[in-house]
Amino acid sequence: MKQRLLDALNNCPADYAEIRFETTDNTGFAYRGKELDNASTGQFTGGIVRACKNGGWGSCVFDTLDELKSKVADACAAATTVGKEKTALAEIAVPADQVFTAQLKNDFRGVSLDEKVALVGKYNDIVLNAVPGVESSTVMYGENFRTVHFASTRGNYFMEERPRILLYLVAIARNGSQVQRGSESFSSATDFTVVLNREDKAREVAERAVALLKAPQCPGGRHHVILRPDFTGVFAHEAFGHLSEADFLYENPQMRELMTIGRQMGNNDLNIIDDGSLGQLIGTHHVDDEGTPTQKTMLIANGVLAGHLHSLETAGKMGAKPTGNARAIGRGRPPIVRMTNTYVDAGTLSKDELFAGVDDGIYACGMQGGQTMMEMFTFSAAYGYRIKNGQVTDLLRDIVLTGNVFETLHNIDGIANDLTMFELGGGCGKGGQSPLPVTFGGPHIRLRDAVIGGQQ
């Protein structure tokens, strides 16, 4: 494969060109209510040629390797047509030949489809029948095994296997016009056992959905708020991480000024990191989809803005180094700047010390959804609790945290030492490419005077 791709790129007239070819084996099915709603399995192949000439990009998508040289020529011709400035792509030193095979602990490909369907069916029965009041369910299983081949006119080649497995558990409860949901999800890049023995979680999502029907709404106003580690991670990813993606910054001068390296972002205990080389998480790869090795990038270090996330192009245009964050969702899609494993690093306080500092506040757990607009955000917790005298008390629903990310970062006045990373189902969406596998995490963090929407 290596020589076939490099031969197709030989004598390419562009300033730079690359070929990425992929095969993906997919299996997925879902129960919705009592019925197995859909099931599918298949193998997909295809790829993309990208070429850059005089700063302009051209691309050609293909399904087979036939006539690959003509696909390269088409991409080069398109790039020549649109290019009107100097090509600025950062240089990187990478080995010419890299092969990364998946290191699976328990290979999901060795488990029959019938076994998987039976397992998920059992979870679905529990969700539907664990407690009275559950109206419906969604229990979904998915797996894919993605093999990526890449070569460029710089002479580098890599092959990387990228597997993933996931499980969703969702319970829907209704009381009149009020509808509540409980959900959990699990994912892994290495281990089928992540979806095993989840009976307790299936029961938990059902119980939570029903309990939320009776829970009071969160009181609105300004509160001291403690974010559970999963909420901390999503906040770091959604509210801050996307602002760190250099393609966004390059196109938004106002945000580029606000995200100037060296700006004070919070107290000295605050560290936010993106690390695509971390362990064997679902957001981890050895190289990104431009062949750049992944790395640990400090976004905020000791409270100070320390870095941005880059592709070859954004690094070249902004005078920075590539960080290994050019990622594509799959075959036929161009890589764009994306996060990998993004987290708030551990602080020095214990969880108990963090809670002891709150006489009356809110404990926000999980993430139901939300939206961002530049530096403004609105996020809904999946559920939460009232905090009284440092103790977690009554269950609450409809917790909506809103604010300015820069102000909110400055309002973090406590960071616990219980860093946890989360590999969940779903992923990140950007530029029409979703769901991209990402990991996020953090410890418990405490916000002072956070704005919560809800009943006054």
UniProtKB/TrEMBL annotation:
Listed Pfam families: PmbA_TldD_1st, PmbA_TldD_2nd, PmbA_TldD_3rd
BP GO annotations: proteolysis
Keyword set, alphabetical order: Hydrolase, Metalloprotease, Protease
Record InterPro entries: Metalloprtase-TldD/E_C, Metalloprtase-TldD/E_cen_dom, Metalloprtase-TldD/E_N, Peptidase_U62_metallo, TldD, TldD/PmbA_N, TldD/PmbA_sf
Positions of the Metalloprotease TldD/E central domain: 107-213
GO CC aspect terms: cytosol
Domain Metalloprotease TldD/E N-terminal: 17-79
SUPFAM superfamilies assigned: Putative modulator of DNA gyrase, PmbA/TldD
Assigned protein family: Belongs to the peptidase U62 family.
Name of this chain's protein: TldD protein
Provenance organism: Oligosphaera ethanolica
